[in-house]
Every structure is written in structure tokens, then in C-alpha cells.
User: Fold Molecular chaperone from Desertifilum tharense IPPAS B-1220.
Amino acid sequence: MTLEPLDQTVATNIQSDDVRVSLSSANHSQAPMSDRIWYVGIDFGTTGISAVLLNAATQLTYPLYWIESDQLGSTSTTPTLKKHFRLTPAIYLSVIEGEPSQALAVPHQASSASWSVGPLALKIANATADRSDSGLLLHNLKPLLKLATPYYCPETEQWEPILQWSPTQQVSMGWIRQALQALFTAMTPLSSQVWLYSAASGLDNQTFREATENLGGVILGCPAYWPDTYRFNLREAILGAKLVEHPEQVVFIEDAIATILSELRDTAAGYQWRGHTLAINSGATMTELVLVDLPNQHQKLTHPDFKLRSFAYGGQAIDQDIISQLFLPQAEETLCEDLNIPLESWPTPGEANLEQRYRLQRDLESTLLGRALLHLAGHVKQVLQHQDRYQCKLGKDRTFHLRRKELEMQVFLPFMRRLNQEFNALLSETGVATQGIQQAMCTGGTASIGPITRWLRQKLPSAAIIQDTYPADRSPGCSRVAYGLATLAFYPQILELSRQQYHDYFLLRELLKNLPTQPTSAQQILQRLERQGINTRFCAKQVVSFLEGKLPPGLVPTDCPSLLATTAAQNPDYQVLSAAPLFEKTEDRTYNANSVQCDRARQYLDRILEGSVQTLEEPYTVRLGLTRKS
Assistant:
């Protein structure tokens, strides 16, 4: 059976203002507040944030939305109100005292700056784009969160690391953390954002306030295989925003798995998902696939049942490739010169080329021309899926003549080849034939493009297919992933327990506190940790990697060094930790601790924790799990 790309039930679920059809009952009888346990699932994306509240007593879900007032700069006494079920993850930092270059290095001086969040941040940035004394627009934050953890360095007297935000602007990673905290604070009625108000569809204001003040847990999505540094930074922002009190109340699950979970409780369509199921989640920066064999009893599902693939290519990369493959050939010399981006700086279409793409995105967004090209590329991406030819102008003197065939062959085809490669690898890993896949779903802005629709129908002719769409003439609804994240509260056994309990930083800290004084085997070191109450069955692989000389990814920022200011190379902590491994492996396969390096690593971890809410003194327990109604 093959469904249309988007049936009416799913369309209502994804796009309507009151998005409760598939994950909640029509009966909204309210239980006493004392009987409720509230959870919130937060889909933190590169270009949008969605959130869904779950009431444990009633098992009903309520999507959050934000109301923006248009009265900014207006004298109207009856401003138009707009609902946004996805909050733009943009923050405008207005420096009140001192020059931006001076104030941005000291994020702990909160009194020197003010924040504007979401749509207002974009409006202010656009209104002040031609002013040299303006503040700074912080956005595209998600990829930065796996780069490094902010901390205060006494030697440099500033928060490290310093990011090269644009060719002319630098910003401390400490500001990124505070920006995240401001975003998550905007999810509560207590937010200080006077032009942005949060609410939940189906809840009155009082109940919404009580719910956000009594959260039992926060469930966040994350890309597959991203390091614990990403989770540490997000958890820190959640705690700083006071959504919950304890670190263990913040749990993570892969975005692609959350996509599957969004359908497990969907009875509205009268179709229960069973058997081999494929989900594709493709957004602004990542494309992920997951394959799982759904049993009749979903409570039997565990994390190893989900087989994942992931690659760093999404909507932003497609926009870059549209510029390089469709725009540049028609105005190569003048465009490259005006952008000050040489031709060799443009990535190969369809390839991740992470550092190259991060640097290109930064350089494009730092100029009016670059931002105009990115906006035009996004528009062309939509238009040429519905018509064969399109002519567009950029400014007064540039006209581009574009064809759908060029878009598909030069931009979409390389992406589809990579997607097909990852899909085939997933089938090879699981031993599942394409004919054995009974249903598939696609979600995320990039997953809605036409070539994916055609590819799915060709690959899975007998499968039921759901493909979410996002009409250009209206703002998107609450994301499917956010619903799936909230639903995780009913399936706590799906959590990857080892990663929830044993953070990389915690394990390294425990290892440094229990150093052997003489060469010791890996097994003996694991036994020492077991005597401290650590279940090494879950974390032996991580511990051995530390013994072999590896540090937790992101502890020292080595990924995409061009995102860092040149001063990062002189950071004393980074220099010391990179100078030598913590352990030396002997010929008889024992490990000898480098006491000097281990002391330095311990001191560095203490510095990180001094500026953090998390203490990493104990493994995290899991406070998640609801009793289902009979």
C-alpha cells in the first residue's frame, strides 16, 4: 500500500495551529494539578525550536507556541498577534556599555548587555545591519555546541574559547551559552521578552504556568553520534533557564528515533505501525536515517533495536550548492570578487566538507550580498520544484536564468546519491530487503523536496509512506520530532542508558581521581572504577579510549579550527592538554599515567565545572517513565 506524500491526518498533525490530533485524545478533562507530572520534549533545530508538553495524568500533549506582537515601532493600539509554533533560534545581543569588541569577551558581566529573542532578534539585526556600532546576531548555534565547552581562563582573563563569528567579529563561547539560556527561558511565562509570549495550545495561562514550573523532565533531541560535549552544553542551558532543577532530569534521544516515536501512539488514522520501519529526518544541517523492526508490543523496544546512519548535509548545504552551481557560473568573476570568497573555497556539491561549509556559511552571512544570495537560493529551491524555468534578479544588475533540470542534476542528484549510499549501508547492516520495509516517513524541511518523494516511491513501492510538507505560504507547525520526544516518557527503556548515566567528562574525571601509581592493565583500571560504584560494563569502551590517549571530543576544540579565533592556538589549557597523552602504553600492554598531564587535565575539568551548574560528582540516574492508562 502506498499513501500520498501527506495524508489528511498527518497534514493536520504537522501544520494546524492546534496540533494534538495524533498524540492526544479529544477529551481534555483536567486532573488536579497535584496529580500531574509534566514533561516537555524540545526539538532544538538549527533554524527552529519546537516544544510539546506532556501531561502524565491525562496522557495528553500540548504544543507550545509563541505570540509575537507587531507593535514594535508602531503606534497602533490594537497590534496584530502572530502565533509561531517554531521559535527562531536567533538572539540579538545589544551591548549597552562599551564597544561590542570589548564587552563580548566577558559574558559574566550580564549587566552590560541585553537580549532579544526569536523574530524580534532578526528584525533588530536587519534594522541595524548598516550600523557599525550595532550589537551582534547569534544564530546557527547548534553546530557550535559540539565544538567546545565554555570556561573562564584566569591566564587570558576571559571566557574561552573565542569564536571567529565573522571576518571582523569575535565572540566568546560563553555568550553562546547565555544565548541558549535566553532561548530556553523564552519557553516559560516568566520570560523577560516583552515582545514575545509563550503559551501552550489547549492550556489556559494558569495551567501552562503551573506546568512549566513543575516539569518532571526535559527530553531533548540530538543528532546521532554527536559527542557528549553537545549534551553538556544543552543540559547546562536548560538548567540555567531553570526549566528543571537537576541534571538527571534532562535526557537525550536521537532525532531520528524521536521521528519513529511520534507515530507509536497514533491511533487517529486507525493504522498501527508494525514491522520494519524507516524514518528519514533531514533538516538544515544533518540528514539521518533509522531502521527498526517494530514489535506488536512497543514496550519491548530498546535502543539497540534502532539502527542509525547520519551525515552532515542538509538544507544549508543545498543552498550553498545552489549558489555555487547555479548562480556563480552566470556571474562567476563579479560574484566571487564582490563576496571576497575565492572559487576554490566553495565545497563539492553533495559532500559534507564540514569545516569548508561552516566557514562559507559564516562568510556569506557576514555580508548583505551573501545573505541575499542565501535567501534567493532558498527561494529558488522551492520554486523550481514546481516549474521548469525561473528567472530572478539580484539587485539591479544581476539576472539569473535557471532551470529545474540544472537544479536536480547539479545539486539534488549528488545529495540523493549520498542518501542512497547511506540507505544501502543501513540495509546491509540490518540484512533487511527493501521489500521487507512496511512503512516509511520523512520529516524535516529538506526531507520534503520532490526528489526524495520520487526516490522513496521507487525504493519502497509497497510501503506506506508519510512525507511531511511545509507550505511556503504559512508558518510551519510544531515539529513531529517534538511530539516524539515528549512521547519518550512512555518508553524510557529506549533511552541509551549508558550515555545518560556516564558522561565522557564524568568518566575522565573519575579516572583521573583513581590513578594507579604504577603501570596497570586496562582490566585492573576498570576494576578500580568498579570499586567506586561505576558499572564498567556500560562504559569500558570510553575508559579504554582515554587510556589509549584520546580525549573526549570537544574537551579541547580540534574540530573545525577555522571557527575559532587565531588566539585559540595560544590558549594555555589547550596547549598543555595537546602536548602529551594522559597515559603511556608500555610494551606489555599496561598503562602508565603521566602524572603531570593528568594533574593539568584535572585542573582544566575543574575550571569547566566552576562555571557550570553540573558538578559531575555522581553518575546520572534516569528520572523518566510513566504509568500508561489501561
